[in-house]
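Support reply, case 0932

Customer input (verbatim):
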Amino acid sequence: MTNEEAKALYIDAVKLFEAQAYADALDKFEHLDAERPNSRHVTYHRCVCLAHLDRKDEAREHFARIDGKLERDKDLELKRLLKEQPPHSDSGYDFPEAPPADSSADLTGNVLVIESAFPKSTDETTITGHVKSGAFRTGDSLTLVTESGMPLVAPIVRIGTAETPLKMVRAGQKAIMLIQVEPHHVVPGSMATCITQEESYAETMVVGMNADAPSTASQSEGKLLELERKLRQGDYAGVKDKLAQVLAEQPDSCPAHRLMARIYLEGGEGIQDPKRALDHIRRAYELGGADDPVVVDTLAQAMAANGEAQHGLRFLERLYSSTREFEAKNALAQRIIEFRTRHKLGHMWEFADSYGDVIFEASEIHEIVRAIKTGTVPKTALCKRDRVGEWRKVEETLALEYPDIGALFKAEAAGNRSVLLYVVIAALAAVLVFVLINLSGGGAPQG
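Our regenerated output:
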């Protein structure tokens, strides 16, 4: 099936769906799924059709594949149709139990179903759940989807309990995790994925630009480049109208969503809308922009504009850790430092021992001074700022920037000089004694 044929089939199916001709619509969506499998748009429509046709067991099987990956309104609509609601809802329905372990065969990547959440502190949460597929390791990061649909990155601080911590959990296992995220962002019943490149949000386009239609892709690309040029000139209102037309024709265009997000972030009065900016850039991220520095940077800015700067920073840090090209990595490092400064997130210092292991990290200078004084951080340790850049000697970085730390090295240097002077004096004294002994011995009569 060509791209144009898929598009035509999808449009016909949606028309039947909207006319509530669910049986006929289902036939077309089934055909489309056979040609273009694993599209969440198609799977969503199939679930609704099956529910209305009273084939709810089949609908539930399909719903398990997309649960937690839909927009909140669609997710709730399906749960209502299937008489299933998340815990603590007003519906009185319980969230469905986890499917059997072998049902994870339809899933790809690392998927965790969150069953409950308990606050540990203002920025840490303990969660319980089961692993549907893949594996999760301490030190990895979860990608959560909040009630508003916002993606957030939550580092895994610990797996298991404090008494019996684990290194990892695999598919089919129950899990308890301590994650670094504010408790109110965790939604019981939702799915979390493990950040491994673009797997966090799989591309689910029904119709996209591919090899079947190179000329269409080229024309669209040229139009978007021209709109981006006008955007740089400040024509936000004009570009916004034209982008709206592009998105009406190509709702799954990653660059169009990215540009629209910029308009809602940077436009003047009457145009700026941080919430809509986040919606568009999140869509661009889902449509293949997870490893695009421009998309990730825009996502971070949109999150900051919505009061989630700390989570925006985590997306920048994730991209930095996966980037290998030297110049791109340096540019991202500078961007991370600027982002921290602009949004008043403070700065973090890491310290590594001679084996290269991180032994201490802190954001407050007085904590670093205390750690050096107590020997927790040896004076020979290497340090790195904001988890980016190269490891360098503390004496060549922090000691020059902060007098309290510099004083520790000056005191050591003064002590070393005193010891050296003592050694020199002692050596000179020994030489003098030796000379005197030899001189006095030289005047004695020979036997």
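We compared this against your earlier run and they match. Two observations from our side: The longest helix spans residues 403-442. The first strand starts at residue 111 and ends at 119. Please reopen the case if you see a mismatch on your end.
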